[in-house]
Amino acid sequence: MNQVGHVTPLQPWTPAEAWAKLARGNDRFVAGRHLHPNQDAARRDSLKEGQAPFAVFFGCADSRVAAEIIFDRGLGDLFVVRTAGHVIDPGVLGSIEFGVDILDIPLVVILGHDSCGAVSATVDAVQNGVMPAGYIRDIVERVTPSVLAARQAGMTTAEEIEAEHVRHTLRLLTERSRLISDRVASGHLAVVGAAYAIGDGRARIVDSVGLDLDLD
């Protein structure tokens, strides 16, 4: 353990291994065969001295999109950062870099979803020319480039626009953070953009960088 509470993982994780573990958990969630791993008192007690999560999640703050539940994980498994519409600001970048650099996590997952209120509000603002009040306006302004890019590409459905917002977030993350882009280039990190369907519970990859799913 070091001074910030990092402990050495029980095994070395590659980005592909980390995603495969998450995918198996999502399969269990979709099928209703949850294992609820690492949620007992023994696990809680084992984390007193530090943490060694195997994935960073940057997702929407929507109450229906809780990463630990969707991917059937438990305490100490995931390092989670959430904002409405998964919009990026300096605090988000610093939090994700903390997970990648200090905790040496090999995978970042950007988790968007259908029926996203932030995306819907932005689509309405773009169409009507009326911005919401307060700090909600800041969220809408940060989502607007994704909506405009989707419209320029001929995307019309909510699902297409939401997937484009995930891809745009992935690009912003890797472009703005030199630390993250360097880790991806060295093969030590992958960034996955996934879209979650609230109805069926499935999280599907819409974009990725640095991910090699060949585990043979």
The CA-CA distance between the termini, in Å, is: 32 Å
Which band does the percent of strand residues land in?
15-25%
Question: Taking Cα atoms only, what radius of gyration do you get, to the nearest Å?
Answer: 17 Å
From the coordinates shown, what is the CATH architecture?
Answer: 3-Layer(aba) Sandwich
Task: Give the helix/strand class.
Answer: alpha/beta
Biggest sheet, open or closed, and with what strands and sense? 5 strands, mixed
* Average predicted local confidence, pLDDT: 93
Which spans have pLDDT < 50 for at least 5 consecutive residues? none
Order of helices and strands: HHEHEHEHHHHEE
Quaternary organisation: single chain
| Annotation field: number of helices | 8
- Give the overall silhouette: globular
Any idea what the CATH superfamily is called? Carbonic anhydrase
Give the number of DSSP strands. Answer: 5
Q: Number of folding domains?
A: 1
CATH topology: Beta-carbonic Anhydrase, Chain A
Would you give an account of this structure?
With 216 residues, the protein is of the alpha/beta class. The protein contains 8 helices and 5 strands. A 5-stranded mixed β-sheet has the order 2-1-3-4-5, sandwiched between helices. It is globular, with a radius of gyration of 17 Å. The mean pLDDT is 93.
Would you kindly provide a brief summary of this structure?
The protein has 216 residues and is α/β, with parallel strands linked by helices.
Key descriptive features of the protein:
45% helix, five-stranded mixed beta sheet, Beta-carbonic Anhydrase, Chain A, 216 residues, globular, alpha/beta
